[in-house]
């Protein structure tokens, strides 16, 4: 199965995404052509705060809302 992986090339220090086979540890660097190593990338996500399914996200949203509302009241908006 082909998956989207992140690779780091130690030769040119480039980081790029590339489709490869699941479990493939090396791939050709798209910049210089040498072997690039598979790296673990951090996922990019945020928890929705509308439904209340994620209490900390909901609490943070409420605190931010209250802070913005107080600031708006101070400025007469």
The end-to-end span amounts to: 56 Å
Query: Mean pLDDT, as a whole number?
Result: 85
Please tell me the total number of domains. Answer: 2
| Spans where pLDDT lies below 50 across 5 or more residues | none
What string, H for helix and E for strand, traces the elements in order?
EEEEH
The SS-based structural class is: alpha+beta
Largest sheet: 4 strands, antiparallel
Kindly provide the radius of gyration, computed on alpha-carbon positions and rounded to a whole number of angstroms.
22 Å
Count of helical regions: 1
Report the sheet-strand fraction: 25-35%
Give the overall shape, derived from the CA principal axes: elongated
Query: Care to count the β-strands?
Result: 4
Query: Into which percent range does the helicity of residues fall?
Result: 25-40%
Q: Strands across the major sheet, in which order?
A: 2-1-4-3
